[in-house]
Amino acid sequence: GDSVTQMEGPVTLSEEAFLTINCTYTATGYPSLFWYVQYPGEGLQLLLKATKADDKGSNKGFEATYRKETTSFHLEKGSVQVSDSAVYFCALITGGGNKLTFGTGTQLKVEL
Amino acid sequence: DTAVSQTPKYLVTQMGNDKSIKCEQNLGHDTMYWYKQDSKKFLKIMFSYNNKELIINETVPNRFSPKSPDKAHLNLHINSLELGDSAVYFCASSQDPVRNQPQHFGDGTRLSIL
Q: Does B97 touch chain A (CB under 8 A)?
């Protein structure tokens, strides 16, 4: 079955540091890939997506590139802010499917 | 305007009770979902409905019964609540899952069983 593996958290960074959260996947067919963010006490919000190999999703300074050869979709941001503190979920949907498969989530804490 | 709204936001109740959580979306989406998020933040799909028809049921105990009166609403009724049901339940919707469109989530219902 489909699965998503994320690096374990929590990840603690100083403000303005570079962020990478690793995500790899296994899936049948050609999945679409997503990053969702969950701020404390809130629901999930779509952060970015990529629907085919070599696509780059980007939003709010975050980027992730769909790498089919390494089955990866790592999330990066050049300079994090305290307001980026949240839990980040990597997820996928395979073609024609309804089921969004999530990774276990990575908590990010950004300190001054 | 809230796109996917759930009520109540918090639900505290005794073991053995029956409770319902309501979800409504105003996005015009055809497909709705229920997810359960446990204390370790792990998210797992429970149900999916497309145009009021059940299309995914992920081996959820039959104490959980979803009901979709129309495609804008998907409610979740839980009978005989157990301690292990304590979690955050998220409703979501999407326009066209065949095209792998992203899902839009509500803010969650935090269910605590005493």
A: yes
Which residue in A58, A57, A46 sits closest to A100, CA to CA?
A46
Closest by Cα among A86, A92, A91, A96 to A19: A86
Mutate to test the interface with B, among A99, A107, A109 (most CBs of B within 10 A): A99
Q: Which of B44, B90, B97 sits opposite A93 (nearest CB)?
A: B97
> Which positions of chain B have pLDDT values less than 70?
1-2, 97-100
Q: Give the residue-averaged pLDDT of A7-25.
A: 95
Residue A66, burial from CB neighbour count under 10 angstroms (0-12, 13-18, 19+): buried
Per-residue pLDDT tens for A45-102? 999 999 999 999 999 999 999 999 999 999 999 999 999 999 999 999 876 666 788 9
For B46, the token pair is: 């429970």
CA distance linking residue A81 with residue B78, whole number of Å: 40
Q: What is the pLDDT of residue A90?
A: 96
Mean pLDDT value of segment A21-34? 91
Choose the closest CB to A104 out of B42, B92, B98. Answer: B42
Calculate the CA B13 to chain-centre distance. Answer: 18
CB contact under 8 A, B90 and A32: no
- For residues A87 and A74, the answer to whether their CB atoms sit within 8 Å is no
Q: Is B90 near chain A, with CB under 8 Å?
A: yes
Note the pLDDT of residue B97.
Answer: 64
CA B88 centroid distance within chain: 9
